[in-house]
# Entry
Amino acid sequence: MADPGAGITTVQAGEEPPPIGGRRMRRSFVLTVAVLAILGVSPLIIEPIGFGYLESTLTRVAILGMAAVALDYIVGYGGLISLGHALFLGAGAYASGILLFHLGDRAWATDQALIAWPFAMLVGALLGWGFGALALRTKSVYFIMVTLAFNQMMFFLFNSLEAYGGDDGVRLGARNRLGPLSLEDDRMFFYVCFALLVLAVVWFNILIRSPSGWILRGARDNELRMRSVGAVTRRHQLAAFVMSSAFVTLAGALAVNETQFMSPGISHWTQSGELLLMLIVGGVGSLVGGVIGAGVLLVLEEIAIGYTSDWAFYVGAALIVIVMLARGGIAGVILGRHRNV
Amino acid sequence: MSETTILEARGLDKHFGHLHVTRSLDLTVQTGRIHALIGPNGAGKTTALSLLSGNLAPDAGRVVLNGRDITLVDLPRRVDMGICRSWQTSSPFAGFNVGENVVLSALAATEKRVRFFPRASADVDRNSFARSLLGDVGLTVDPSLPVIELDHGARRLLEIAMVLATRPSILLLDEPMAGLAPSDVRVVSDLLLGLKDDHGLLLVEHDMDVVFTLADEITVLADGAIVASGAPDAIRANPVVRALYLQEER
# Structure
């Protein structure tokens, strides 16, 4: 390689360039560790301080937090706003739920998490491939509308499954089995969900730094520019959509385990909206913001329900205040209001 | 890279609605010669560049690279073939710092498959290639600076570095000198003259001093059609061109 030339005086040849965003990157790492640590110890400390009833809420924070993190990869880093990701929650619920439902009367049925959950992710990835390839032919608000349409399509498909209770859904009454771990134990189930959340956060942090992730982010900033230096942007956006879909589908499989109840409700489009709301509150384009948003939203809701039947009013008011005061979400405020990396 | 890569426009036509912006345009870009495209505002210079680079498709006519018809080849694949353009308005990727913008351009030109490993910033060769390009275009700022902190001139230089990062054999540059300080104009001029021997260069430019110093061939556009084409001296003496364009500028 040629000598870097006399122009650059601040950096030596061959040295790796400074990390992206420098201090912000390190802060982002600290914030991620802190948020996950807080969520990880929460089940142990809520009992003594009188919030023991929040235990199942924390499990939902881990599950929907994972879905929000996966959604953030395409929304925050790809600039692709999907209002259809609840369809993947539904797909995960039905893919693993149906395997469990038929236990005892069908040869292909299984209650093994190690089969059911990867199977759900595979289903999600394939659906994501198909829906993503079609939706990515459109841009901006049309992309939102097309993903919403796919969401509705799948919602009504789940509703029409009479064998599984139609729009009422069906009780499963059991959870998957995961080796020697007893998922029936709520505490154990929380930690399994939490471990998978940590895995998802690590994985998507790897993706945003990968070559494909850089092209995804470049296309978010300026797609035409990205294509004019040779990137086939659609290919990388589709890969991101598939990755995102697979992890939301895993979250769906966990969700059906949490409630032990399989119903179309989980795939209603308002649930897609709620995932986006979690991102907006927690901070779009920071990955860990999805976990923060899920935590704030679900815990706030649960606590408010305990005090008043008008809880939705107060939660709504609180959200307006958060969004007004914290542009860039809670993570954005903590990390400083710079442009997201 | 010593082959005489030749990019040709043959009878290109382009309408935007009722506006006829390119009229049976014939152009040639070849290595060893700098070809400048000039003309008054709205003459269709940028459109001509876009038709050659592939981000616009012509209504009629062909784009030919080394005898091969590439009219239907899209923007990214033309970059694979060695054609890369710059943009009149500097638009670096806002989410990346100065050095990363060049690395990202180099990466985009080579990473055709989806790869998640290793990290994009881990390629030492690519990083030092990017840094050498920043030196080549005379951009002396700290590469870790956010692009929003660059002034206009520095953005223009970064723009050229990003084009070079794709290792093009044909460069289509849209007003590369616009807004540059005189010292930077000299750096970029020297750079282009250095590239000339083994690169094809097509240049849309408003700065007449630059055009007449650098260009081996000048094509004058007005209302989407070629008014005159030839060596700088011939163009300078051409009465039609003087009437149409040069006097209007002065």
Summary: The domain at 25-333 of chain A is CATH 1.10.3470 (ABC transporter involved in vitamin B12 uptake, BtuC). Chain A has one domain: 25-333. Chain A touches chain B through 51 residues (CB under 8 Å). The beta strands of chain A are 170-171, 261-262.
